[in-house]
């Protein structure tokens, strides 16, 4: 048996192709059927790596009796949130309004045939438990309400549409009101929620929130805030020691279910790992920390080994489950570890990874965490610290070999443009500061792949599946890829990347901008008409598209001396400034842009023989703070106007500029190092 999902490119939708539910993908035909039959729509939104999505599928969507009720009473539509973040944003917001609590996945929405939601939830069990109704019972109650309470539903729908419209409203603050007060308030807010013992912010569940960490890095290095550095360093230390980080294979899971970062939901998402890679690489040079360097190296190795497509772009995610069980691929028993590493290294492995403590996963297995620094473990065991590091690396390699023989978690092999932008930017920044040209090569190859596959006739596509570019690109696709290109220009100058960046910037402004209100919509002007057109400045699981777009346009505007880009960035800040002042938390990406609006980014233009320029750029990269752009132009032709327009000399000349002001050219490396703070 197959339903209408069997031919869909999305791996998540294909997971449900054998369900007895008569699933439709989101399409005009399904919406028309709901109108014709006057049936409500049951909309289920999830993603392929989602554990609770799998649970609900096994309990309900694979059950013929449940499917019979669904098919009889509803038009059933299944959506991959990663391919359709526009729908996910709309209906997650609607869920919060209807249920008065945060959403998540799976998201279960009941819509009238015009697409307006009138009831919502997330996971529902087949039989009532956890204080939730049984799913079949819920279905029959929703059907009865649809037939007997239509007037109330129509009235509520009007209120929901009005409330959704208000979520997209923006202000128009005067730039005279711009100060660094909301930036300081955001950092103070993080300090109030900071967990000094375990790092991170707030209680369980804990998410890494890379935009907040990036703000702390910028405030520490460029803003001179030592407290921001303390919070960032402690958080990075604790995440790297916990089970959120894969101690054997590298890379980070999506979030921790506890406050200690110990037990994650085991899905690994591309979108977190790119920014975290960059943060750990930068932290490694800022604090001269070997552990941070190791985490960066292992995370990059994971991405290049397990997430890179043969064409050079990056796949989306690894599942939380394997063989029908969450975490089965990752957990161990002490006996299995000893059998793998041998008796000689077993004592060290047990002590370092907590195998001499009670099981920490479901009462029977051990998910490995680095319980103590290796030096402290070595002292307890009477070992030389260097020998202990060598032995633990040897044990880790053996566990990696053994784990590789297990049934692997499922791979979501679609290529998402926005998430690729985040990973490319992370690889480039990490490659620059840690001097890893192999990471840079991989990132530039991914840019070339995206330009060849998802960029066509001046527009981006959001997804690449089975060699097919599809779905109208969203704001995040343009913004995140533009940010990656600006990172590329700082890493290894290529004229093609500058041309691509300009084309993306022009398309972003033309296709998403609101000239009257300022800021950018999430969907383009020619996008499918939905019940709401989202526009937000908040960071979510991924950074704010408005925040990344504004900062990237601002940086590009300063580089090129292009007022249109600077004006567009200022318009974003004007649109969201009121919200940033009233509730500073959650606007980290826009705070980074505001900081560079108040104090324009420092731009270092390197001109001269290319080999010497590349050497200066390599030495400058770890010294440059996050608000400094190093541009190794060498002997390239440069556009007239802007910071790039500097003459070519027989030896290296470095121009250090901020806004329209530049210092006299620097011809001595030690002088530039001193200027950069080295």
Describe the protein.
There is one protein chain. By secondary structure, the protein is an alpha+beta fold. The chain has four domains: 11-167, Glutaredoxin; 175-323 and 412-598, Glycosyltransferase; 330-405, no CATH class; 602-676, no CATH class. The chain contains 25 helices and 19 strands. Strands 2-1-3-4 form a four-stranded mixed sheet, sandwiched between helices. α9 (210-221) runs parallel beside α11. The longest helix has 20 residues, at 563-582. It is globular and about 80 Å long. It starts with 10 loop residues before the first helix and ends with a helix.
Summarize the structure.
The protein is α+β, with helices and mostly antiparallel strands and 678 residues long. The protein is 50% helix and 11% strand. The radius of gyration is 26 Å and the shape is globular.
Features:
single chain; alpha+beta; Glutaredoxin; Glycosyltransferase; four-stranded mixed β-sheet; four-stranded antiparallel β-sheet; 25 helices; 50% helix; 11% strand
Unreliably modeled segments: none
CATH architectural category of the largest domain: Alpha/alpha barrel
Mean pLDDT: 96
Q: Could you name the CATH class of the largest domain? A: Mainly Alpha
Computed over alpha carbons, the radius of gyration is 26 Å
Q: How many strand elements?
A: 19
Helix content, binned percent? 40-55%
Domain count: 4
* CATH fold annotation of the largest domain: Glycosyltransferase
Give, in spatial order, the strands making up the sheet with the most strands.
Answer: 2-1-3-4
Give the end-to-end Cα distance, rounded to a whole number of Å: 66 Å
Instruction: State which percent range the strand residues make up.
Output: 5-15%
Helix-strand makeup class: alpha+beta
Major sheet: 4 strands, mixed
Count of alpha and pi helical runs: 25
Inertia-based shape: globular
């Amino acid at each position: 048996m197959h339903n209408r999902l069997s031919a869909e490119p999305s791996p998540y939708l294909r997971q449900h192709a054998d369900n007895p539910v008569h699933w439709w993908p989101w399409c005009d035909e399904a919406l028309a059927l709901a109108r014709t039959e006057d049936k409500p729509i049951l909309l289920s939104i999830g993603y392929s790596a989602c554990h609770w999505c799998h649970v609900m599928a096994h309990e309900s969507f694979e059950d013929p009796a449940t499917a019979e009720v669904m098919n009889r009473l509803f038009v059933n539509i299944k959506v991959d949130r990663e391919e359709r973040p526009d729908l996910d944003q709309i209906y997650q917001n609607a869920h919060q309004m209807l249920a008065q609590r945060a959403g998540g996945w799976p998201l279960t929405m009941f819509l009238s045939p015009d697409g307006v939601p009138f009831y919502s939830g997330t996971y529902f069990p087949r039989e009532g438990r956890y204080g939730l109704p049984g799913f079949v019972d819920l279905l029959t109650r929703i059907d009865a309400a649809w037939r007997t309470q239509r007037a109330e539903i129509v009235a509520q729908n009007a209120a929901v549409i009005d409330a959704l419209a208000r979520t997209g409203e923006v202000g128009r603050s005067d730039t005279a009101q711009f100060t660094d007060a909301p930036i300081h308030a955001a950092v103070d807010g993080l300090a109030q929620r900071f967990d000094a013992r375990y790092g991170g912010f707030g209680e369980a569940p804990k998410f890494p929130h890379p935009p907040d960490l990036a703000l702390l890095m910028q405030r520490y290095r460029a803003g001179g805030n030592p407290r921001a550095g303390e919070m960032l360093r402690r958080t990075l230390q604790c995440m790297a020691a916990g089970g959120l980080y894969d101690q054997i294979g590298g890379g980070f899971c999506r979030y921790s279910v506890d406050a200690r970062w110990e037990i994650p939901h085991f899905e690994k998402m591309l979108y977190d790992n790119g920014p975290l890679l960059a943060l750990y690489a930068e932290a490694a040079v800022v604090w001269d920390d070997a552990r941070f360097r190791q985490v960066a190296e292992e995370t990059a190795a994971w991405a290049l080994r397990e997430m890179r497509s043969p064409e050079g772009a990056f796949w989306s995610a690894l599942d939380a489950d394997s063989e029908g069980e969450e975490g089965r691929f990752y957990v161990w028993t002490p006996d299995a570890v000893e059998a793998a590493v041998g008796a000689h290294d077993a004592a060290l492995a047990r002590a370092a990874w907590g195998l001499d403590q009670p099981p920490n996963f479901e009462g029977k297995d051990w998910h490995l965490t680095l319980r103590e620094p290796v030096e402290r473990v070595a002292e307890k065991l009477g070992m030389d610290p260097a020998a202990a590091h060598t032995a633990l690396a040897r044990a880790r390699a053996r566990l990696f070999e053994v784990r590789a023989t297990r049934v692997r978690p499922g791979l979501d092999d679609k290529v998402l443009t926005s998430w690729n932008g985040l990973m490319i930017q992370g690889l480039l920044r990490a490659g620059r500061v840690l001097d890893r040209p192999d990471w840079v090569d991989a990132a530039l190859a991914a840019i070339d792949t995206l330009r060849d596959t998802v960029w066509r006739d001046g527009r981006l596509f959001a997804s690449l599946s089975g060699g097919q570019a599809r779905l109208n690109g969203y704001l995040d696709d343009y913004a995140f890829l533009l940010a990656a290109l600006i990172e590329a220009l700082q890493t290894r100058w290529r004229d093609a990347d500058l041309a691509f960046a300009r084309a993306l910037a022009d398309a972003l402004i033309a296709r998403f901008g609101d000239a009257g209100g300022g800021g950018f919509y999430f969907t383009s002007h020619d996008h499918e008409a939905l019940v709401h057109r989202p526009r937000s400045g908040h960071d979510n699981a991924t950074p704010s598209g408005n925040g990344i777009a504004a900062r990237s346009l601002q940086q590009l505007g300063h580089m090129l001396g292009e007022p249109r880009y600077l004006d567009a960035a200022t318009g974003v800040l004007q649109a969201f400034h009121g919200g940033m002042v009233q509730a500073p938390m959650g606007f980290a990406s826009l705070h980074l842009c505001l900081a560079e609006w108040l104090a324009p980014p420092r731009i270092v233009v390197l001109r001269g023989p290319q080999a010497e320029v590349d050497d200066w750029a390599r030495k400058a990269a770890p010294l440059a703070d996050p608000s400094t752009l190093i541009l190794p132009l060498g002997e390239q032709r440069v556009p007239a106007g802007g910071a790039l327009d500097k003459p070519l000399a027989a030896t290296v000349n470095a121009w250090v500029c901020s806004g329209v002001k530049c210092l006299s050219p620097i011809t001595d490396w030690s002088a530039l190092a001193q200027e950069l703070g080295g």
